[in-house]
Design brief:
The protein is built from 15 helices and 13 strands. With 393 residues, the chain is an alpha/beta fold. Helix 13 (282-302) crosses helix 15. The longest helix is centred in the first third of the chain and has 28 residues, at 3-30.
Length: 393
């Protein structure tokens, strides 16, 4: 194939993907039943309405923030209190927060090597930012679809200054270790004189599976990053929490990285709303995700799909994966058609090719999903599978 033909084919694929995404979002907007409605599914007017709730959580007659004071400082104090740390610093993105945290730790330990999982966010989604921007050297403890074990940490063949653990590990299926496994991994890092940093973008909902409070979980690590939009439905933003001296140093690097934004009160207020409105409901979402996952397994089996997986079988959080034996574009089209024709969105996300004739999607359960019964899920599975081609033998 010529370069021109390859380019034309790539552009055509991009156009098809964009058109399908537009259909998916339109169907989701108009659906009468969905498992989750995220902020990006809503209009600007609907998003701005979130700030009307902020008056219940913060004095709106105070002056707005300037370079991190006011409501931003109040949010930082709130996060530090929830996680039981000495201090916290607000960052515009989690990518920046974690680069800064691990850069600060590298300066303190004298070792820029960061041990992490091969499926962790910096390795998969950040364009090699640790090494290209942060001057860090990431090394992979494992790429298996689970968190690293204590033995893998203890026996790793070269020194590292920091161990980074993503809790939960999204690209492996939002999986978590047990509390005992987690404490053993942390202890193994301590034996090697390494600091421990938690990528806790979704730490908020991890309390159910781990059976411990946020303060207890965060207390295992030397520093923790948390996100305000992934589960709390804030407009964006993140926080880095840890010892006071580390956080002060991180604020200096935040300025150097361009994260000292003049005013961030809309994002900070939305985060405070999320902490009050969504955080207390996360255990309920996790519990219902387990109902949805079980019904999905039963529905797919009853529909005669020859090979299907819900992973984990019992979700560790309110998010999980579904694997089906079809090409991704086939499943994506069937999911959108089902939503358009029935007004019910079972699979609202994109499908990713995971192997020949195999694709994966993520299922998210939020407040809207609490309205679904197990029978509703099974009925939606029937509608979805009816729009798939003949089953593979």
């Amino acid at each position: 194939m010529t370069d021109t033909a390859e380019r034309d084919e790539r552009v055509a694929d991009e156009d098809r993907s964009a058109a399908l995404r537009a259909r998916r979002l339109a169907a989701h907007r108009g659906a009468r039943r969905v498992l989750a409605r995220f902020g990006f599914h809503r209009t600007l007017r609907e998003r701005l309405a979130v700030l009307q709730e902020a008056e219940s959580h913060y004095d709106l007659d105070e002056l707005s923030d300037v370079y991190g004071d006011g409501v931003v400082a109040a949010l930082e104090a709130r996060v530090a209190g929830l996680l039981g740390t000495e201090a916290a610093a607000f960052f515009p993105t989690g990518t920046m927060a974690q680069q800064v945290a691990l850069r600060c730790w590298a300066g303190r330990t004298g070792n820029p090597t960061v041990a992490l999982h091969g499926l962790s966010h910096p390795e998969v989604h950040e364009r090699n930012a640790f090494s290209e921007v942060g001057g860090l050297r990431p090394v992979r403890l494992t790429s298996r679809p689970r968190l690293p074990t204590a033995a893998e940490v203890r026996d790793f063949e070269e020194p590292f200054g920091a161990l980074m653990l993503e809790l939960p590990l999204r690209d492996a299926g939002f999986v978590l270790p047990s509390w005992e496994e987690l404490t053993e991994v942390v202890a193994a890092a301590r034996e090697r004189d390494a600091v421990v940093h938690f990528d806790g973008a979704r730490l908020w909902e991890s309390t159910v599976h781990l059976g411990r409070s946020l303060e207890e979980i965060a207390g295992l690590a030397d520093s923790v990053y948390v996100s305000f939009y992934k589960s709390l439905e804030g407009f964006g933003g993140a926080a880095l929490a840890g010892p006071g001296e580390l956080v002060e140093e991180a604020k200096a690097w935040r300025h150097r990285y361009g994260g000292q934004v003049f005013q961030q009160f809309p994002t900070a207020l939305s985060a405070l709303v999320g902490l009050e409105r969504e955080l207390p409901r996360l255990p309920e979402y996790v519990a219902h995700a387990r109902v949805v996952a079980a019904a999905l397994r039963e529905g797919l089996a009853a529909a005669g799909v020859p090979w299907a997986r819900v992973h984990p079988e019992v979700p560790h959080t309110h998010d999980f994966q579904v694997w089906l034996p079809y090409e991704a574009d086939v499943l994506a089209e069937a999911a959108v058609r089902t939503a358009e024709e029935t007004g019910v969105v079972l699979f609202g996300g994109a499908w990713t090719r995971s192997g020949p004739g195999l694709a994966t999607t993520e299922v998210h359960v939020r407040a809207a999903g609490l309205e679904w019964t197990a029978e509703d899920v099974k009925a939606a599975v029937t509608d979805f599978t009816a729009r798939l081609p003949d089953r593979a033998g």
